[in-house]
Amino acid sequence: MPEQRVEDAISAQSSAKRYLESKYGVDKIKRVIFSALARANTISIRHSLGGIGKNVILPYDLDIYCPQNIFIGHDVTIGRGTVLWASSKGKIIIGNRCAISTRVCLITPTHDYQQLPISSVGINRSISVGSDVWIGVGAIILPGVKIGNGSVIAAGAVVTKDVPSNVVVGGIPASIIKKIIRN
Fold first, then answer.
1. Better pLDDT: 141 or 44
2. What local confidence, expressed as pLDDT, does residue 7 receive?
3. In sequence order, what are the residues at sequence separation of 6 or more whose Cβ sits closer than 8 angstroms to the Cβ of residue 102?
4. Looking at the DSSP assignment, which residues form a beta bridge with residue 129?
5. Separation CA 135–CA 145 (nearest Å)
6. Is position 74 annotated as part of the catalytic site?
7. Which DSSP letter does residue 67 get?
8. Which of 137, 128, 73, 131 is nearest to 101 (CA)?
9. Could you report the per-residue pLDDT of 125-148, keeping only the tens digit for each?
10. Closest CA to 168 of 180, 183, 181
11. Burial class of residue 72 in the structure, from the number of CB atoms within 10 Å of its CB (0-12 exposed, 13-18 middle, 19+ buried)
């Protein structure tokens, strides 16, 4: 008897799937399901963060560690595949009106390479991103970095030290390319 119920359920599921595919098309069904899962994940991420402002756009595949130590201001957009790796002693603080592109990494934990074994000494330094900052595709922001207001981090840059306000930095390691003069 239970086997028959399982077979009936599988048959009903297959029939429903065939009906929906014939009526709406496979691609549309996949998009709807994907969109629903993305919204559910974003809601889950929002509730786990230490703080989050209004009008924040988070991708469904945001990779976060120690979310209670991540704080995001108002009007922030974060691109797909981004990693926000806070730690128990290292916070990530992102100001207002920031644009963080795809596949950006902000990482607060590190190790002391002079101590052996490497894994024996963990170092945690907070990262602070000011307001009106743009971080380009694939940039890496390392532990302890403070990025000043209005600065731009070029695509692929590896930021190892503090960035003053209103500058463009790029390269490995990142250095100032030019100052931004605003009206």
1. 141
2. 67
3. 79, 80, 81, 82, 137, 138
4. 94, 147
5. 13
6. no
7. G
8. 137
9. 999 999 999 999 999 999 999 999
10. 180
11. buried
Over range 35-55, report the average pLDDT: 80
Cβ neighbours around 170 below 10 Å, total: 19
**Which of 64, 151, 61, 132 minimizes the C-alpha distance to 94?**
132
The single residue listed with the structure tokens 């990262």 is 127
Q: Which residues contact 79 (CB under 8 A, 6 or more apart)?
A: 59, 100, 101, 102, 103, 104, 137
- 3-state class (DSSP) for residue 102: coil
Sequence-distant (≥ 6) Cβ neighbours of residue 165 within 8 angstroms: 130, 148, 149, 150, 151
pLDDT in tens, 114-124: 877 777 778 89
Predicted TM-score of the model (pTM) = 0.79
pLDDT higher than threshold 60 for residue 1: no
Predicted local confidence at residue 143, as pLDDT: 96
Two tokens at 27?
């691609």
Catalytic residue among 28, 30, 39, 111: 111
